[in-house]
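Interim report, section 4.2 (structural modelling).
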Amino acid sequence: MSNLFEFACRMGDNSLVLGHRVSEWCGVAPVLEEDIALANIALDLIGQTQLWLGLAAEIEGSDRDADALAFRRDVWDFRNLLLVEQPNRDFGHTMMRQFLFDAWHFEMLGALKGSDHTQISAIAEKSLKEVTYHLERSTDTVIALGDGTEESHNRMQNALDRLWPYVGEMFLNDDCDHIDTSSLRPAFDARLADVLGQATLVQPDSTFTHKGGKTGARHTEALGHMLAVMQSLPRAYPDAKW
Amino acid sequence: MTKQEWPLWEIFIRGAHGLSHRHVGSLHAPDAEMAIKNARDVYTRRKEGVSIWAVESSAIVASSPEDKGHLYDPADDKVYRHPTFFDIPDDVGAM
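Predicted structure of the assembly:
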């Protein structure tokens, strides 16, 4: 597999898996306004998936298209970060996961926008507009719930503590990454400190990080269950059209 | 514990530059900034607008329905207030 194919899958699988996770809130979010907002974010992410996996398919040059990559690969072929496959749990947990990913995604797309590869640069530029809004929204929610009631504060702190071991993987770097992802860390850390401060949340001091999502070496058990649901229709009715 | 509802906001959207903002509906939000964000998600997801106003519903002063007799009926027989008595040349086009 070429490095570029691998990289396009990483980007596409991040947005696909998180997009599906967020879509699981459709119809059951705490209030109507959040329900629609989350559905919009999910749709943005699935739209970005079409672009990244479309590019991956083009690079691969076989008969697989974006749909085949999304719906006919199994867990071990997915290249998403472990963070995005984590289950939704409660709304606070979902929004903390979103904020951590958005804050990385924002820096990542900003860097990719300057790529010499015209397709990567174009996808990054288009996605960045959407992600700027995602980040604005998740930032506001993390601050509002962190600095909210005792209940909401505790839930957000629990979410941060639980998700923290998945943050480091976003900045691990190898030859497949189109840019040096470790270079994004200072800007991410600065934003994190600012937002967590406003949210009255405490950043865990551990530097331990789970890894194996973006390389495909070792996903968490959550991904298989998610794919079983996400892929069930196209697997039961291959090539169905509607 | 009683459940506290977010306040209600009236949302106005301007569909294009040069048009005026029009009332499109209402939604709940904890504060003004989130009202704008929620309005963006609820009311502009199909490219309906270029500008959003949010006004807390409680800040709106409305006329009372039972006053409609003396407020509006007097205008019924004052057709001369409508500019319908002018001959408009055809080449003026749509006014």
